[in-house]
Amino acid sequence: MTNKDLTTVESEAQHAIADSQQSTAVRDQSLVEVGQIQAFDFMKKQSEAFNLKTILKHKENKAYKGLPYTDENGNTAYTKTWEDYCIHKVGMSRKMVDENLANLKHFGEAFLESSKKIGLGIRDLKSLRQLPSDEQTLVIESEAIDTGDKESIKDLIDDLKAKHKKELDTEKKKAKEIDDQRQVAVRMRDEYQMKAMDYQTELESTKFKADAWVDQTKHLLFEATKYESNAVESLSRLIALREHFLDDDNLSPQVTEYLAAGLLHSFKTLAEDFAQAWLETSNILEGYLPKMRPSLDVLQELNDSAMSNEE
Fold this sequence. Notes:
This protein is 80% helix and 2% strand. It is mostly helical. Strands 1-2 form a two-stranded antiparallel sheet. A hairpin with a 5-residue loop joins strand 1 and strand 2. Helix 3 (94-107) crosses helix 4, helix 3 (94-107) packs across helix 5 and helix 9 (213-247) runs antiparallel to helix 10 (253-284). It starts with a helix and ends with a helix.
């Protein structure tokens, strides 16, 4: 190899070393700058979280009153309300500050920092906060949070929000149907009570006649038997509802709670009303308790007596 060739090789080597050194310097400088950017961004987010915690402390301790600020006329004024503090000391509307504080208290400092870094806005976090807790967890623990995929997170929140709204609409529809049924039941109960009052009035106007007491007694006993049968039928239907309810293993805890509450009240009301009626009646007619027997038996006796008299 000639001296010229050696000189060329050395020159190329020096250029390569220089290029390598320059590339390394550029890379190192870039790393420093990226580090600076990341550090600045991290400190900014740390500052936001710290500021929110300080603001929250001021709100809880009511330390937001009496703080000086310069009003629109350039005069010194002092905060009197939480809204004054938000506007003049924080530089945001009260609604905006309250939303930020709600997010801090609900999600915690760590997730709030992550969400800010990803770029989720207050509206996104509010939507997330309004989801059921299990669906919130689904979003918070999703892979999109780890990767910082803002659009995927927003899409997931929107999908869950739409699903939750649909479920709420369904529940509202069911609640309305139940309320309509309740209104019908209340109306029927009121109608029964009115009929009972009318029947009582009708009975009060009926006077026993000496020559017709047998027929009148039969009529009243027949009425008693009919209403006794109605009461037994009502009780049987309630028992059938209870057995149907107990035999269904697929009911959710919420449905079970509602059904149990209603059935217990129905049985309790029926038992108490009949017990009270029995106490009052047995006290009034105490002297006749030894002669107590079914109305059908009494009716049979009256018929037998009437036939004997005819003979």
